[in-house]
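SUBJECT: A protein chain and its fold
Encoding: whole-number codes for local backbone shapes
Chain under study, with its fold:
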Amino acid sequence: MVGTDDTELSRDLGVFAVFTVTAGTMIGAGIFILPGPAAAGAGPAAALSFGLAGLIALVATMCAVELSTAMPQSGGSYYFTSRAMGPLVGAVVGFGAWISLIFKGSFALVGLGWYVTEFLEVPALGVALAGGLALTLVNWVGAEESGQLQNAVVVGLVAILAVFAGGGFFAADPGRWSNFAISGTEGVISTTGLVFISYLGIVKATAVAEEVEDPGRTLPRAMFGAVIFVTLLYILVMLIVTGVMEIDEIAESSAPVAEAGGRFLGSFGGSVLALAGVLATVSTANAAVLTSSRFPFAMSRDNLLPPAFERSSPRFGTPSLSIWLTGGAMVTLVVALDVEKLAKLGGTFGILVFVLLNVTVVLLRSAQPEWYDPDYRTPLSPALPLAGAVAALSLIPFMGLLSQLTAVGFVVLGAVWYLVQTWVGDPVEPDHDIRDQLLGAQYRRSIEEKTGEVGNDATLGPHVLVETVEGETNPHLLTVMRAFTDRLDADLDVLTITEVAPQLPLSEAAHDVDDDWQETIEHELALRDHAVVFDHVRAHDRTDALLGSVDDRTELVVVDWEDPIRKHHLRESHVDEILRSAFPVRLAVLKDRGTGAIGDIVVATGTGPYDRAEVEVADAIAAATGASLTLVKAIPEDASESATVSAEEYLSDLATLLSAPVETELIRTNDVETALVSRADLADLLVMGAPAHPGRYREFFGQTTDYVAAETDTSVLVVKEPEVPFRRRLWRRVRRLVG
């Protein structure tokens, strides 16, 4: 559950205010610095690279808006992902977002040095270092951002760029675009990754969600409009720069926009554009210091970083350690890396953050926690967010080995740091993790699959096949046979198999079925409306004989399990073989340990959801016998509130799908197997599901079912759904995805 505080902010920001905040995070250093490296990488097609990066950013913006309207107490990508997927993912995103903005700030400082040299003959590196130290100092003493100043800066930059675009439209020579993509598709994609750093500040704008009037309408309009507008502006600026200058000239220029403007606006126009470049780079670098320094501050409040990062300066009231660490890292990177490496490194971390935002939306939509109720919902989900995530990830192979290794390194660092903090530090916040949300999504999907299917008699076949042992008639088997016959409205085929030694011809294995035993079964079942047909098969292989007896009329196969159950005893047994086989219909294996009537049925599972088979089978028996039915689920003792609520809701929703009266029971335990054995011993019949793919496990049933079936003193019914071919399973998943 997402926590909130009691403080409410005035909701007075309209579309224009949010538009300027969002546009201001993008109209900065990127548009004044990147035309040079971008043109060198893709030529005029760099305009297309800006467009592709803008499309990916637009999808991420949609997801960010949805998350911000669901979590209005938002603090950016770290808050979204940590509250949705837990502190482990939050640590990775927190470090990633922090580092990406540090790289963006360093990138902007380099650009600041370039544009200042258009006015003063000073070393560009010296200007970048001095600018980084000055901005760090300004943020440390507590300079406050003014909304009106931000609006004025953005409007001023847009006005200057509008003049540039207007004059450049007529000055550009279309002939320079004849060799549009000088490096082909690979160059366009690689350059898309290079320019991606221009869009990293988008998520920052969602931090004002709590102050937005009617956020469900205002945020989408303002933020989508800003992304589209800035993307089109980037494309236009790139086309103009490549239309008035040669590619080699652009690549060698330290201030390409100013130099291009000087070609058709004169020296004064070039100077104005250079001044705009100075303002844009200062604004970008300052915003990077301000924003990135808040990530360690927020992570410290969640106990993911030491308390020192949360402490404020007693003199200025700002997070001193966080600000100086961030500023120091920016200055160091200015010295260590060139502008292209800074852009690609920052873009790589930004891509990972954007991908996780997209995945967060898909996960929350699937899990549907009670608190998740956004005012805006990303269209075509989950297809569109997943497509955006895939498109973003596809850029990383083109970002260079340094970027890839650094990104992997910091992901590992985030995960390791989280583990260290959980071992040696205070409890981290929030108290749930991605496993809880994934399990919630499993629960939700399980209920959706069962809805309309559980108890749907119209789709069931007319025959139940029971393999039993001649001469043996136990009461629980008869109860199960009668229950399935009634529920499925089916005739009953009772099969006895005599296994003949391989060296002996089948014709020589004389053995007749006892008529008295058949009459006993018919009498005790007392079926009036359904036929009971007996069959005796001699075979060298008992499992093959059972499979061969299944036909198009068979809906369910019940196997009477006479052998004793011990752990590992199942291997190479008849039960082992049939349940490991690709059985074409639903299968139920009964181990009878009772002599009385079935009055109490328990359906048990570990942390995962029930399969449809075991709940339907248990429901049929409970409805036929009037027995009490209890759905039991085990969860860890330290399960988070989110995991507990998801499990309770799942059991409650599942109970409503069954025809018999149902009770639910949630067991908190760190020893699932022992707890389920103890609960099963109090019942007359335990129903459990077998793994869909038992061959993947060392033991036939899987660890939990194998142990519980062996150790409990009650009768056990193990149920398995029919084997579904891989192609059909894949098709089902695709249909769920697009449906």
